[in-house]
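Hey,
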Amino acid sequence: MTKKSLHKKKNNSKNVHKEFTPLERYKTLIAARNFHYDNFNKWLSYFYIAIGTLFIGFCTLKTSDKSSSFELEIIMILILGYIISLLWFLSCKGYYYWNINFIMLVNDCEKKCLKLKKEERVYSVFANKETENKYFSPINGANISTSKVAILFSFIITISWGILLLKEFMKFIDDRCLSIVLHILGVILIPIITLSFSYISQLFLQSKIDHFPDLKLDQTERD
């Protein structure tokens, strides 16, 4: 092998193992964050369509003149509505978890890799925290997390399906007092059951991240 080919091979080997520059790392993190955001929005449309279709089906059967003939179908729709809404709720929680991860990595890159001053940063700087931060005004904005609102909304929809399902089962109980007591217990227990499912989901829906290094970054860390 000639000296020229050896030199070329050595250069190629260096290129293969070339590390990211701080700017390349920064751009890659932002691209990964944006890809995650776009992908999540695509998946959300499936949940919206499924939940909307089920609700229309439920209303159609429930208001039908022969609704008593569709009791099993109505219960099946309500069960599916609860399950799909629960998965939607879990997806919103999962998105928020990963989104915070990417934002923290971008912030850390701006500070430690790019060595940007506070006022030069993009993702960890604010123009004016008080501007438009008016909670009581009907025509102004406020510091409210849209992601947290989405999680709360999906949680409320999930509970609503659960309450509708409970109400459907209550038709088979003739004792009025017992029915009222079970209704009250159900309204209290359904949110707890839903959160319990959320907790249990970590056993089989958790992303495999054990092999990822944990930087232990603090979201509230100051310079």
